[in-house]
Every structure is written in structure tokens, then in C-alpha cells.
Amino acid sequence: MTDFLEKWSSKKADKPRAGAKTVIDTFRARIAEQKAYLEEYERDVDGFSKWRSTWFQRVPGGFGVTVGRDAVNAGKGLNYVVVETLKDVAEFLDDLAHHAQSDTGFQQALENNRQRRAALLNAGKAGASAAASKAAKPAATKAVATKTVAAKAAPAKAAAVAADGEAKPKRGRKAKAETTTN
């Protein structure tokens, strides 16, 4: 046991935390992913099926390449190019990675886009939790109104089922006992 601790304690480190990457690191990782898709496409042009994940598409005249999945431009409105060959696509992705590393304006645009996406995600989560809390705590008057409407609708529903003939109960549900309200 002591040999183990002596051997490995010098290599002790903290675990990397999720989300610790900078926007530039994340963007460069996405570019590397696109280059992997490009290599896969080069190996099997006819069998390639991951078009929805790629930033490049076949277009008349060559390949159309976007700058990411979001509406981010690389500067001066540059967010889409059309190139002739796969080599040009790879060169564009390499230059884009270098541009992301060196251009502070582009880095700021990436950070703003990240913040916008995070705000949308958090707003969606907050909206879902607010809707759940409203559903969990209905107002007393709303509950009373729902009961009277349901009580009035129950005989009408039973009459409609009787007119159609024998109705099969839904799977996995117990029959609801009828209640009368005065």
C-alpha cells in the first residue's frame, strides 16, 4: 500500500470540472470534430450520412461551409463560404481555428453567443419549473370549478359510451368510482 501511495501521490491532481473549458477551447474542439467528419466523408463519399452534424454541405459549385451552428460570424459578416474542393474545406477549418485563437472580436462574439445560449437554456428550465409548480399548487377556486365541470361532464360521457356500445377500459387504469355532489 505504501509503495502505491509513494508511486502515485506525486501525480495527484484535481479532477477537471465540467464547463471549465474556455469558449475558444470548445470552438476548437468543434472544429476538430468537423475535420473528423470531413475525413469520414473523404473515405466514403457515397455512404456518408452525418450531414445534419456537419458545418459543410455539398452545394452547386463545391461545398458550402458555415462558421458554426449558430448565427456567429467570423468578422465583417463572414459566416458562410463556398469552396471548390475538400482540401479547401480543410484549409478553411484550419484558418478558422487559428482565427478563433487570435481575433479578440471573434472570441467576444463566441462568448456572447455562449451567454445567449445559456440564458435561453436557463429560461427554458425556469419556465418548465414554474409551470410544474403552478400545476402542483392549483388555486382552491380553480379546483372547485374543475370538480363541478367534471361532475357535469361525467354523465354526458357515460351516455356517449352507452350509445356506442360496450367500451373497453384503458390498459393499466383502475375504474373510477362515481361520486355524487350536491
Can you put this structure into words, describing what you see?
This protein has 5 helices and 3 strands, in the order ααβββααα. The model has no long low-confidence stretch (mean pLDDT 77). The chain is 57% helix and 7% strand. The chain has 182 residues and is mainly α. 10% of the residues are buried. The chain has helices spanning 2-8, 23-43, 86-102, 104-136, 140-164; strands at 56-59, 62-66, 80-83. It is extended, with a radius of gyration of 30 Å. Strand 1 (56-59) and strand 2 (62-66) form a beta hairpin. The longest helix is centred in the middle third of the chain and has 33 residues, at 104-136. The chain has a domain at 23-111. A 3-stranded antiparallel β-sheet has the order 1-2-3, covered by helices on one side.
